[in-house]
Every structure is written in structure tokens, then in C-alpha cells.
Amino acid sequence: GDSVTQMEGPVTLSEEACLTINCTYTATGYPSLFWYVQYPGEGLQLLLKATKADDKGSNKGFEATYRKETTSFHLEKGSVQVSDSAVYFCALSLNTGGFKTIFGAGTRLFVKA
Amino acid sequence: DTAVSQTPKYLVTQMGNDKSIKCEQNLGHDTMYWYKQDSKKFLKIMFSYNNKELIINETVPNRFSPKSPDKAHLNLHINSLELGDSAVYFCASSLEGSGRPQEQFFGPGTRLTVL
């Protein structure tokens, strides 16, 4: 079945360190891929997305590239800030007669000053 | 203006009670969802409505009944609440008319605690 696997957390980094959160997927169709971020006490919000192979989504210094050959959509940032501390969710969406979104388990990121 | 709103934000109740959570979106979206997030942050789809019609109904107990009076509202009623229902419930909406999956906009969540 369709699924999303992302690296387990928590991930703890010092400010200005590089971040990579791995995400791989399996899908029976041709999904759109998303990264959502959840700050403490809030709902999820879209961070970036990509709708076709080799597309790169980017926002707030974060980037992810849709890699069909490796079925991956890894999230990267060159220099994290304390304000990036949150839970990050990788997700795929498919039109299977109804729109279905499958979320990964989430990766908690702590950034220390 | 709040795009997706939910009420109440917190709900504390006894086992066996019946409760409702309301959701409204003012984005003009045609699809609305209910998700359950457990204490480990795992997010699971419960229901999805498109233009007031139920299109996704995952394996949830039939104590949970969604209702969509119009495209802008999707309410969740829960009968005979159990301890395991304690979680944060998120409403979300999206515009799916283009045929390609779009981003979802989430509400702030309702934290349900069953005692």
C-alpha cells in the first residue's frame, strides 16, 4: 500500500548547523509530495511542496527535491535557527477517486542556541 | 481572518459522554478532513468530505459520525467517549477541483481529554 517513511527523531542540532530529514515513499500512482511543519500548540502548515519528478520545493531556507528514481523527498536546510524547532511531517497525496493524503510519523527537531 | 477554525480548543469530559467538535473554513475550499493526532504526534486521517459528500471513511469506530451541513462546515460528533479517544483532533481543508492534489490548510486543533 501507499506509505511514507521518515527518519525517527528527535533530532537535536546547534544553531547554524545543517539539517537533513530523510523521507521516502511508496505509492501506486504519481503523488504530489509535501513537507508540513507543526510548531508547538499549533496545527500543521505547509512548508513546501513538489508535484512532479525533479521539482524542487523551497521556502524559508528549506529545500526538498522530488526524486522519482529513489522515491525520496529529503528535507534540507543549510543553517538552522532556534525558531525552526518544531515537528516536521513528510506527506504524499494521491487522487484515488478521492484525494488521500498519507503523512509520515513526524520528526521532532530541537535547535539549541 | 482565521482560515480554518475549530471549536472548542480544549474539551475535557467523562467516559461515556457524547460530544461534538465544530469546524469551519472561509477559504472557499471544496474538501474538508478530520485527522486524529496521538500523543506521539502520529497523524491519521479519519474522514474526508468533498462538496458535502463523504469520500474517505477510514477504519474508525462508528461512535464517530461526521456531518457536513454545507461546504464550509464539517462537524465531528463522538458518542460514548472512551479513554482511548483522548487525542488532538485536527480539521483541514483543501481545494481539489483542479484534479491534482493540493496543500491542506489545518485548523488549530481540539485537544480532547477523556477522564
For the biggest sheet of chain A, the summary is: 6 strands, mixed
Largest beta-sheet characterization of chain B: 7 strands, mixed
β-strand number of chain A: 12
> Helix share of residues of chain B?
under 10%
Question: Rough shape of chain B?
Answer: globular
Task: Considering residues with a beta carbon less than 8 A from a beta carbon on another chain, report the largest interface and each chain's count.
Answer: A-B, 27 and 27 residues
DSSP helix count of chain B? 0
Determine Rg of chain A (CA atoms, Å).
Answer: 14 Å
Average pLDDT of chain A works out at 94
Structural class of chain A: mainly beta
Task: Estimate the global geometry of chain A from the Cα principal axes.
Answer: globular
Distance between the termini of chain B: 34 Å
Order of helices and strands of chain A: EEEEEEEEEEEE
Overall pLDDT of chain B: 91
State the separation between the terminal residues of chain A, measured CA to CA. Answer: 41 Å
Q: What kind of assembly state do the chains in view correspond to?
A: heterodimer
What portion of the residues of chain B fall into strands of 2 or more residues?
over 45%
In terms of DSSP E residues, the strand content of chain A is: over 45%
| Count of distinct strands of chain B | 11
Order of helices and strands of chain B: EEEEEEEEEEE
Low-confidence stretches of chain B: none
